[in-house]
Design goal:
With 147 residues, the chain is of the alpha+beta class. The protein contains three helices and four strands, in the order H-H-H-E-E-E-E. Strand 3 and strand 4 form a beta hairpin. The radius of gyration is 31 Å and the shape is rod-shaped.
């Protein structure tokens, strides 16, 4: 009997230590999952703005009027794009860089009727609710009739 009385309270002390260790592990796991959730949200926001900037560039380069305007004015033309999300604004600036020989037309008929036009398109997009910003640049050549 004397051995049992000398251990009174030891089980309580050990169980409290185990409870403390389990609580620390649980809190650490919660912090880790919250951080992972924030990283995933930031990646999603970056991807949305990246695709919006890329779409703005493609939209500007597919718009023949903006390309012709850039050639004629020899100035930067801005094309805004509404992607259907009010929290994302995107636009592209198209700059005429010059013209040269149209490859594939240089030795044949009508070689003087066509030129290769070089453009630089810079797309940018931003998300207003979290501050995600993306800017990218793309060069392109288009073959067309002489202007």
């Amino acid at each position: 009997m004397q051995n049992i009385n000398s251990q009174a309270g030891a089980a309580l002390f050990v169980s409290l230590i185990m409870l403390l260790v389990l609580t620390i592990i649980g809190v650490t796991a919660m912090r880790s999952s919250v951080l992972e959730e924030k990283m995933a949200a930031n990646t999603m926001n970056y991807n949305a703005t990246f695709h919006a900037a890329e779409s703005a560039i493609e939209n500007a380069l597919d718009d023949t009027n903006s390309l012709v305007q850039a050639i004629l004015t020899e100035d930067t033309v801005t094309v805004n794009l509404d992607i259907g999300d009010s929290s994302i604004s995107s636009s592209a600036d198209v700059t005429y860089m010059g013209s040269g020989i149209a490859y594939g037309f240089s030795l044949g008929q009508n070689s003087s009727a066509f030129s290769s036009y070089s453009f630089d398109a810079t797309g940018s997009a931003s998300r207003t609710n979290n501050g995600a910003n993306v800017s990218m640049s793309q060069g392109v050549r288009r073959i067309g009739p002489n202007v």
